[in-house]
């Protein structure tokens, strides 16, 4: 049975965002236990030229809400990027999951060939939906989810692979 664009996008984003929520919950709990101001983790980055934990989560959710929207020919919802706490980040994930729940497999049927137009780094890009999903949206999503995990792990939060995969 061939995999559908829905299964390759919405279902994957939903599972990984739920797991990211678990990772963030572990980070918040660890900050509390160690009496660390949560903003230390939220503003942490792996290298000076990389984004903070907060921004990593914002970008991950942007890809998760953007990919199926574009594939279905819908407008991508705009989020304000104003999150300043773990609770705000969890709310953003919940809002993204709510958006993802509005899609059905039928909404993405045939999107493999739909031309996806993007502006990336000031450049206009166009590619077929399958190429966009597998070579742009999904790799970017995983990069930012993994970097969020890595920032917390680097700051001493005892995370493991199971939490990254399952979220609990």
TrEMBL record:
SUPFAM superfamilies: DinB/YfiT-like putative metalloenzymes (SSF109854)
InterPro entries per record: DinB/YfiT-like (IPR034660), DUF1993 (IPR018531)
PANTHER family the UniProt entry points to: BLL2446 PROTEIN, DUF1993 DOMAIN-CONTAINING PROTEIN
UniProt name for this protein: DUF1993 family protein
The species this protein was found in: Ollibium composti
């Amino acid at each position: 049975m061939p995999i559908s664009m829905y299964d390759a996008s919405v279902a994957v984003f939903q599972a990984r965002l739920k797991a990211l929520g678990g990772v963030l919950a572990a980070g918040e709990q660890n900050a509390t236990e160690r009496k660390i101001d949560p903003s230390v983790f939220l503003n942490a980055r792996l290298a000076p030229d990389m984004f903070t934990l907060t921004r990593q989560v914002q970008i991950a959710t942007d890809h998760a809400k953007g990919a199926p929207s574009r594939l279905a020919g819908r407008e991508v919802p705009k989020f304000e990027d104003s999150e300043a706490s773990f609770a705000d980040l969890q709310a953003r994930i919940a809002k993204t999951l709510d958006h993802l729940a509005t899609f059905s497999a039928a909404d993405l049927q045939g999107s493999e060939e739909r031309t996806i137009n993007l502006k990336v780094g000031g450049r206009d890009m166009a590619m077929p939906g399958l190429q966009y999903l597998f070579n742009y949206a999904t790799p970017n999503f995983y990069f930012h989810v993994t970097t969020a995990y890595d920032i917390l792990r680097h700051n001493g939060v005892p995370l493991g692979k199971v939490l990254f995969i399952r979220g609990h």
